[in-house]
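Just scan my protein:

. . .
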Amino acid sequence: MLMDDALHIPASTRSFSVELKPKRGYLDATRSVKDSLGGGGGSESYYVKLQRLKVAEGKVTEVSRYDPVDLFSADRSRVCRAVTALVDTPQNNLKVFTFSEAGSTLAYGGRLGKVESVWSAINKGQESFIETLTDAILNSAAMLAVHAAQGLSHAHPEDIMAAHCAAIPTFSFDTPEDAHKIPELRDFLLAASANDCSVIMTFGEDGSVAESVVDIDVKGAGRVDNWVKIGRRIEALR
């Protein structure tokens, strides 16, 4: 959701805003045993693997060329490639909002998909938009913070389930001793939360950029079982 309190550029000078749901910017975790389930392999990102599963299950119609590892790479050519792929296949990972006196309006991505009229609405051609967003990502403190949080854990869900199956049903961040007693599970859930957050970048008419991280609710331990099941469905595609 686009939140006005996350937009620190005065309304009168806002040009447009972008909401990125970048997803996990690391190669997928491998299991600690060779006969692993869950799609571990270390050569692709989880997002890339999940795209194939979504197509196979009819949840999306085409596999996106977007790879979060490129977006977080800090290499201009790779970041540009990731942004281009997001523009080509925005799904729920890229949304562009325009502004008027009435507030903000979704103009591209998300439930709308590709809407070519957005480029005239934000007074930028597609290539100029890609270049502008690439520059913003390369200079983004929010993206660095998200990537650092994602890196708190590289554990595979199967290994987390195997090691902490007894604790998972009752684990709660509302109980401080839980987080201190089981740091591996704590860090895994914090990383998972960062994997699913959004970064909002608002661009001013003067070229300024304001950014904020939203949708950062901490994932509950009960989600681990679901991640294991998704991983097994990914593996079954091989």
In short: Residues 4-151+197-217 form one domain. The CA atoms of residues 12 and 52 lie 43 Å apart. The chain has one domain: 4-151+197-217. The beta strands are 14-20, 94-100, 103-109, 198-204, 209-214.
